[in-house]
Design brief:
- This protein folds into 2 domains: 157 residues, Rhodanese-like domain (Oxidized Rhodanese, domain 1), CATH 3.40.250; 151 residues, Alpha-Beta Complex (Protein-Tyrosine Phosphatase, Chain A).
- 32% of the residues lie in helices and 18% in strands.
- It has 13 helices and 18 strands.
């Protein structure tokens, strides 16, 4: 029997946006998304590709067109389920209750959420875990309104043409994508992107001549490329924008190797974690790329030695260096409460919360 587990909205978002050559939504055994809300709610709007679950009497029906045994991701959502626990459903709420001991006599029953109820049926039919969307449609549509639709039937050519969004690494804060997504105005608007880290040779049309919001690291997609000289600038840039409440898009040409290497380096810096831990975290987000591919492509751009350099810094402790004659090197020695914007120091207010990451010294 399969497991019944919760799925966070960011997880479903990333499942919907996985891509190989085309969107993985085109694969028949990749995702089955079930909507167990009422028919009129489903018709009003639902998550793209979701199937409405019909009922016959009080029993949910299983769609005959889907071979659940072979589906990798089965996700069920209702309006707002956020717990596996049973709750009290009052079938006669307009009647007065005498006391708590007589609650069952007044039509009260212990029931579970509709999504959980249907999920418990599905776990009998599949070998993979069945996911319950935490917070249901209300929470997901509030976070990702652009995935709402009224379309019921999706033709194969329409799924082929579906344009995925960047993968969400840190919810609402850091996304990783490819060059085409970085050039798409709709993506920038929907995700509220207001800072770019471009780890490629191409030039994107956004934030041109605005060094406060664009960090362009020109690196070839080659095993000979060296990202180490730029990692401190990259991590400080992202750290500053996160502290200022910005949403950052890290991208490269294909959104696989150089951008992943940059994100892994930042996660090591931010969380003071090892290479292995941060790679595993990134691989869980990038579901469309196998673990071996993530590791291999990241190491093509910046070898494991580069990451181990940062790892050793985290393990051996920070060492202070004397200020250099080069002002750019002195920038790297700034404490986390200072940043370098518009050619001058910007000292954050002492009352503001400190960034989680620490400086490398």
């Amino acid at each position: 029997m399969a497991d019944l587990v919760f799925c966070e909205p960011t997880e479903l978002y990333n499942i919907l946006n996985q891509v190989t050559k085309l969107s993985r939504l085109t694969e028949p055994n990749y995702l089955c998304l079930f909507d167990v809300r009422s028919k009129w709610e489903y018709d009003e709007s639902h998550v793209i590709t979701a199937l409405h679950v019909k009922k016959k009497g009080n029993e949910y029906l299983i769609p005959e067109s889907v071979d659940l045994e072979c589906v990798k991701y089965c996700v069920v959502y209702d309006n707002n389920t956020s717990s596996m626990e049973m709750f009290v459903k009052d079938a006669a709420s307009n009647e007065e209750e005498d006391d708590e001991d007589n609650c069952n006599e007044h039509g009260q029953d212990l029931v579970c959420g509709a999504a959980v109820e249907y999920g418990r049926i599905l776990i009998q039919l599949t070998h993979h875990p069945v996911y319950i969307l935490r917070g249901g449609y209300e929470r997901f549509s509030g976070l990702y309104h652009f995935f709402r639709t009224q379309r019921i039937i999706w033709m194969p050519q329409e799924l082929d043409a579906f344009q995925p969004y960047p993968i969400e690494i840190i919810p609402g804060k850091i996304f990783v994508g490819d060059f085409s997504q970085a050039c798409n105005p709709k993506v920038q608007k929907d995700l509220r992107i207001n800072a770019h880290v471009n780890v490629s040779m191409e030039t994107s049309p956004f934030f041109v001549d605005d060094p406060d919001r664009l960090l362009h690291i020109q690196i070839e997609d080659s095993s000979e490329s060296k990202i180490l000289p730029f990692l401190r600038y990259l991590c400080h840039f992202i750290e500053i924008h996160l502290h200022l409440g910005s949403v950052v898009l890290v991208f490269s040409t294909q959104g696989i190797s150089r951008s992943c290497a940059a994100v892994v380096a930042f996660l090591m810096h931010k969380n003071q974690e090892t290479l292995k831990v941060c790679l595993e975290f990134s691989k869980r987000k990038l579901l469309g790329v196998t673990g071996t591919a993530v590791l291999a492509r990241a190491q093509k751009v910046s070898t494991e030695i580069i990451f181990l350099h940062f790892e050793s810094r985290a393990q051996t402790g920070r060492r202070r260096r004397e200020p250099s004659c080069n002002p750019k090197e002195n920038l790297l020695l700034l404490p986390p409460r200072q940043c370098f914007l518009r050619g001058q120091f910007l000292v954050l207010e002492q009352g503001s919360p400190s960034p989680q990451a620490t400086d490398w010294q």
